[in-house]
Write a structure and sequence with these properties.
288 residues, alpha+beta, Porin, 8-stranded antiparallel barrel, 11 strands
C-alpha cells in the first residue's frame, strides 16, 4: 500500500512542477507579446502624430496662401474699382443781344462765346467690366469773346462796338453714370452715359465802346446757382488701368451775364448769356 501511495504522490508532484514551468513560460511569452504590441502601438502613435503635425502645417500653409491670394484679389479689385479722371477741353456758350436799330425795330443776335473747360473727376465702384459708378467732379471754365461787332442803336445816331466779353464759373457736381463695353474684352472700347448735379458760382463782364467818342459802358454780374449736366463718354484702353476718354456734355445753370437795358446806360442794348453750355473734353481714366 505504501509503494503505490508514494508513486501517486510522486506523480502529483511532477505534474505540479511541469505545470508550473509551463505556466511560467506561457506568462513570459505573453508578456513579451504585450511588450512588442506596446512598442508597435508607440511607434504607430508617434508616426500618427508626425503625420498630423505635417498635415496641420500643410493646411496652415495652404490657409496662409489662400488668405494671401484673397488679399491680393481684394487689392486688385480695389485697384480696379476706383478711378481718377482729369479732362481738358473746350466749351461753347452763347450771348443773346437785343437792341433797337435806326428804324426803331427790335433786333436779336446770338454771339458765340468759346472757352476752355478743365475738370477732375474722382469716382468709385468703377469696374473694368462696365456698370454703374458714382463720384464727384470739380471744374472751372472760362469763356470769352474779343468783340469787334458794331451796333447802330436808338435813340440817336450812335454806333457802339462790343469790346470785351468774359464769363467764368467754378462748380462742384455729384456724378452718376453707366458704362458698358462694346467688346467682350474689358480693355476694349466702351460707351457711357453720365449725369451730374451740383452747385456753381461765377459771373461775367461785358463792355461796349462808342465808335466815335472816347467813352464806354460796361456791366459785371455774378452769383451762384444749381448746375445740371448730361454727358456722353467714349473710351478705350491705352495700357493697363488707364483708359483714354472723350466726353461730350451739355451743362445748364445760371446765366453768367444778365444785363437789362438800363444796366448799360443809355446805349439801348441788353445782353444775357444763354444758361446752357456745350463742352467737349479729352482726358484719361486712371484706375487706382
Amino acid at each position: 500500500m505504501k509503494k503505490p501511495l508514494k508513486t501517486i504522490i510522486f506523480t502529483i508532484v511532477l505534474c505540479f512542477i511541469f505545470s508550473s514551468i509551463g505556466f511560467t513560460q506561457l506568462h513570459t511569452e505573453k508578456s513579451e507579446e504585450l511588450m512588442d504590441l506596446s512598442d508597435n502601438n508607440s511607434s504607430e502613435y508617434y508616426f500618427d502624430n508626425q503625420i498630423k503635425k505635417n498635415t496641420t502645417g500643410i493646411n496652415s500653409l495652404n490657409e496662409q496662401t489662400n488668405n494671401s491670394d484673397i488679399k491680393t484679389n481684394l487689392e486688385n479689385d480695389d485697384w480696379s474699382r476706383r478711378v481718377a479722371s482729369p479732362t481738358y477741353g473746350l466749351s461753347l456758350g452763347f450771348l443773346g443781344l437785343t437792341y433797337r436799330d435806326r428804324n426803331n425795330e427790335e433786333k436779336e443776335e446770338t454771339i458765340p462765346v468759346p472757352g476752355i473747360d478743365l475738370r477732375h473727376f474722382n469716382g468709385t465702384n468703377v469696374s473694368k467690366g462696365g456698370g454703374f459708378y458714382y463720384g464727384y467732379e470739380l471744374g472751372i471754365g472760362v469763356n470769352f469773346n474779343t468783340g469787334g461787332r458794331t451796333y447802330d442803336t436808338q435813340p440817336g445816331t450812335d454806333t457802339y462796338r462790343l469790346e470785351e466779353l468774359i464769363a467764368f464759373r467754378l462748380f462742384l457736381m455729384l456724378k452718376h453714370g453707366y458704362r458698358f463695353n462694346l467688346t467682350p474684352d474689358p480693355d476694349g472700347f466702351s460707351l457711357g452715359l453720365e449725369l451730374g448735379l451740383g452747385i456753381m458760382g461765377g459771373g461775367g463782364y461785358i463792355k461796349f465802346e462808342h465808335t466815335s467818342e472816347d467813352w464806354s459802358e460796361s456791366y459785371d454780374d455774378g452769383g451762384a446757382s444749381p448746375i445740371f449736366e448730361l454727358a456722353l463718354e467714349g473710351a478705350f484702353s491705352t495700357r493697363e488701368n488707364v483708359r483714354f476718354s472723350a466726353r461730350l456734355g451739355v451743362a445748364a445753370g445760371m446765366p453768367a451775364i444778365d444785363a437789362p437795358y438800363d444796366a448799360l446806360g443809355n446805349i439801348g442794348i441788353k445782353g444775357e448769356m444763354v444758361p446752357v453750355m456745350i463742352n467737349l473734353r479729352l482726358g484719361f481714366r486712371m484706375m487706382h
